[in-house]
Write a structure and sequence with these properties.
By secondary structure, the protein is α/β, with parallel strands linked by helices. It is built from 7 helices and 15 strands. A hairpin with a 4-residue loop joins strand 11 (201-203) and strand 12.
């Protein structure tokens, strides 16, 4: 870990060149920071971290292919443990996990004042073990992340893995759960789609979003999708044009 007066070695991983340029410009205001390299994918980032041994890795969460959390796991598997500062535009479920882990993140577009606060916090927290514990907690929380949803009665937190499918209902959306319960959520299905990670959920029509992990079979001949819910099969209509999503 780096203390005050010491050079801070940085690598930036983001699939958006404009975002890399923006962050690099802000970091250039700090004389003690050296930007060693930048990359636009997890694969490239993995090599850059191994080659350069940075103190800080600024990393986007959502990228094509593997995401930022997967890079963390891969690096920890080979005992590489830099400090990670996440940069993200919208990933609400990840932000909740980061907050719970008392982890640093920056929202795009980068605010110079927030960047200054984050770097100051990095310099003060000079315990490597403290950062390692935060990473462990973060990865644990992300195994079964929860999302906060608004209902007419207030807010509820639901584990992603418990959602079988979502059904549009005008300005509201029904969430059908593994325990056979259903929740009426404030927000149309388009808004709900933005909250759900695309790795696990896919919107197959104007009416339905399904949990890809629970798909048992898709019958394109009869345009039916079968989802496994507590050893029960649920059948949902799926349009033929959705085939390209799989």
């Amino acid at each position: 870990m780096t203390g005050t007066g010491t050079r801070i070695r940085v690598v930036i991983i983001d699939d958006m060149p404009d975002s890399i340029e923006n962050l690099s410009r802000h970091l250039a205001e700090y004389n003690e920071i050296d930007i060693l390299a930048t990359g636009e994918s997890v694969e490239k980032g993995f090599s850059l971290v191994i080659d350069h041994h940075p103190d800080i890795v600024f990393i986007d969460i959502e990228m094509p292919g593997k995401n930022g959390f997967e890079l963390i796991k891969e690096l920890r598997n080979i005992n590489f443990k830099p400090t990670f500062i996440f940069i993200t535009a919208f990933n609400k479920y990840a932000i909740e996990a980061i907050k719970l882990a008392v982890f640093d993140y920056l929202l795009k577009p980068i605010d110079p004042c927030e960047l200054k606060t984050t770097l100051s916090r990095y310099k003060i927290n000079d315990s490597q073990k403290a950062f390692e514990k935060k990473i462990d907690l973060l990865l644990h929380l992300l195994v079964q992340p929860k999302i906060q949803f608004n209902t007419v009665k207030g807010s509820i937190f639901i584990k992603l893995e418990n959602i079988v499918y979502c059904e549009a209902n005008g300005n509201y959306t029904y969430l059908y759960m593994l325990d056979d319960k259903k929740e009426l959520i404030s927000g149309n299905i388009g808004a709900i789609q933005k909250l759900l990670p695309s790795d696990n959920f896919v919107r197959i029509s104007r009416t339905y979003i399904i949990n890809k992990n629970l798909i048992k079979d898709i019958n394109w001949r009869h345009n039916k999708c079968e989802l496994m819910s507590n050893e029960r099969l649920l059948k949902i209509d799926i349009p033929r044009k959705a085939k390209k999503l799989f």
